[in-house]
TrEMBL record:
<feature type="signal peptide">
    <location>
        <begin position="1"/>
        <end position="23"/>
    </location>
</feature>
<protein>
    <submittedName>
        <fullName>Lipoprotein transmembrane</fullName>
    </submittedName>
</protein>
<keyword id="KW-0812">Transmembrane</keyword>
<dbReference type="InterPro" id="IPR016087">
    <property type="entry name" value="Chalcone_isomerase"/>
</dbReference>
<keyword id="KW-0449">Lipoprotein</keyword>
<feature type="domain" description="Chalcone isomerase">
    <location>
        <begin position="26"/>
        <end position="192"/>
    </location>
</feature>
<dbReference type="InterPro" id="IPR036298">
    <property type="entry name" value="Chalcone_isomerase_sf"/>
</dbReference>
<dbReference type="Pfam" id="PF16036">
    <property type="entry name" value="Chalcone_3"/>
</dbReference>
<dbReference type="InterPro" id="IPR016088">
    <property type="entry name" value="Chalcone_isomerase_3-sand"/>
</dbReference>
<keyword id="KW-0472">Membrane</keyword>
<dbReference type="GO" id="GO:0016872">
    <property type="term" value="F:intramolecular lyase activity"/>
</dbReference>
<keyword id="KW-0732">Signal</keyword>
């Protein structure tokens, strides 16, 4: 190798190293950044995937955690803030979305668990009552912040009240990650399986 080739290699390496690392994952045209921030803390994209019903693409979802986890137990136990980011891929009446939420929650929690978080389930249901339709392109975000609670956002704007119990957030996560997930192909995608 001559000096010119070595110099070219060093210049190319320096240019490559200076490029920003935008490792976004694309799910049905929706880009999920590799990192995000919740409550001032950086989170990593644990996984992202597509929610389908029959043959229809309903939404793309991404799960952000403080550190990557591959099992449901680890995800539910991970400390710090968390985020579920959902981008709608079709119009869905909020009544249908709320019904699917309730069915997913009921399928993956016991009656005792639901009774403990019933006030928060009711508040969450009120959120859907405020929005008649989730439209294609809408972004729904569910953030968990320790010592504060769960806050929902629609297109970046807060909707509904803060729901304080972590058991509620974990119950919501189990809609996608529980033993009976709403979409069996979305669960492994959110757990970062390729």
């Amino acid at each position: 190798m001559n000096r010119r080739q070595i110099l070219r290699g060093l210049v190319a390496a320096a240019l490559f190293a200076s490029l920003p690392a935008f490792a976004a994952i694309d799910v049905a045209g929706v880009k999920f950044d590799d990192t995000t921030t919740v409550a001032g803390q950086p989170l990593k994209l644990n996984g992202a995937g597509l929610r389908t019903k029959f043959v229809f693409k309903v939404y793309a979802a991404g799960l952000y955690l403080t550190e990557k986890k591959t099992s449901v137990a680890e995800v539910l136990a991970v400390p710090g803030p968390r985020r579920v980011a959902i981008t709608m891929l079709r119009d869905v009446p909020s009544e249908d979305f709320g019904k699917a939420f309730t069915e997913g929650l009921n399928a993956n929690t016991s009656k005792e668990e639901r009774n403990k978080i019933l006030p928060q389930i009711m508040k969450f249901g009120e959120i859907f009552a405020q929005t008649p339709t989730l439209k294609k392109g809408d972004q729904l975000t569910l953030d968990w912040t320790p010592n504060e609670g769960t806050q929902c956002y629609l297109n970046g704007k807060k909707i509904g009240e803060m729901m304080p119990d972590q058991a509620f957030y974990n119950a919501v996560l189990r809609i996608w990650l529980g033993d009976k997930p709403v979409d069996s192909s979305l669960k492994p995608a959110l757990l970062g399986e390729k």
